[in-house]
Design goal:
The chain has 267 residues and is of the alpha+beta class. The chain has 2 domains: 52 residues; 206 residues, Jelly Rolls. A hairpin with a 3-residue loop joins β12 and β13.
Amino acid sequence: MCTPSVKKHTTYMELLKAISSMVFITACLGVGIPVRTAVDKDTIIGIWLFDEGISDGVKDASSNGHDGIVVGTPKVVDGIFGKALSFGGKDKVEIPHHDRFTTPTFALMAWVNIEDIRSGYQMIVGKNAHPYRNYAMYVHTEGKRLHCSFCAGRCMGNFNSHATIADGEWHHVAFTYDGRVERMYIDGVLDNEKKIEAKPGTNTAPVIISRPPFRGIIDEVFIGNVAISEDDVRRTFEDGIERFILTSVEPTSKLTVTWAAMKSRRN
């Protein structure tokens, strides 16, 4: 009866020693321990956070090199995370075409703050050369709702949110398509979905953020080539792109806390 107890104690002490060694080594080297994020970085096409100013264009934070060209005079303002861009109806950001933007499955996300909408459909972000639209998110006058769409000669992938987004408040919006079902999310929660098996249209048009006459503020734009999960959308809504998707290491203090917690439970 004593042997299992000794073995368990020995295994536990070995684990503590291993963790302690990791804390010591990483503290000395000043590095962190990589942690897995649910969003595979290889599926990210581009991320635009607007935190570095726009004098030299809009930088792609994903390091994929898809920097944007500023057209007009959008203003840099405070966003949900860091800075954002305020568009006045004549401004936009153009990201030049690249073959990576052409994808049969996708995920789009952004934060928006829209006071009102004057007419029709105003595109938040998309890759559109109607009637060949790969993907796009809009705000629409009908109910001031989110409208998501893709087209291939005809627009069979159109659908609207139940929730209102043009109300002068910040909202996180997302649009995903996995080849079978398209889904839209408002503030991290699934709002609507539509079953459809079709291949979105392709084009060589640039990706547009805030196609005129869009008026409002946009922050943290994301485009990926797979449909991310509802949990990933929720985590992005709660933590932001930089913390949840871009950050790949935890501080060494996290290990220290974990080690201390294990000692506490042992004692």
